[in-house]
Amino acid sequence: MAATEITALIASSLATFLQIYFALLIIRILLSWFPNIDWSSAPFSVLSQLTDPYLNIFRSIIPPLGGIDFSPILAIFLLQFLQQAVTGIAV
Predict the structure, then answer these.
(1) Domain total for the chain?
(2) Over the stretch 46-83, which tens digit does the pLDDT of each residue have?
């Protein structure tokens, strides 16, 4: 296997991971609109444990304004940028 093939394989795998993580992040953001969700119950706690560390980075940069958390917007933009960059390497 040539070095370029290995690089393409790694980049492709990383791009797939970022796509899956992006989907989980969108689900987490959409579910946050429902205040009655118990984030300590089984499916939601796993989702929270997977996505909150990434979102907390941006929550420390952009505090909620008027009770609205705008940090997921920045988190999505950065994740999309990374996904596009990795996809460009994979091609």
Answers:
(1) 1
(2) 999 999 999 999 999 998 888 888 999 999 999 999 99
Instruction: Give the DSSP letter string of 22-89.
Output: HHHHHHHHHHTT-TT--TTSHHHHHHHHHHHHHHHHHHHHS--BTTB--HHHHHHHHHHHHHHHHHHH
47 within 8 A of 27, measured Cβ to Cβ:
yes
Please measure the distance between the N-terminal and C-terminal CA atoms of the chain and give it in whole angstroms: 17
Q: 2: pLDDT confidence band, cut at 50, 70 and 90?
A: confident
- The pLDDT mean for the chain works out to 91
- Range(s) of the domain holding residue 23: 3-90
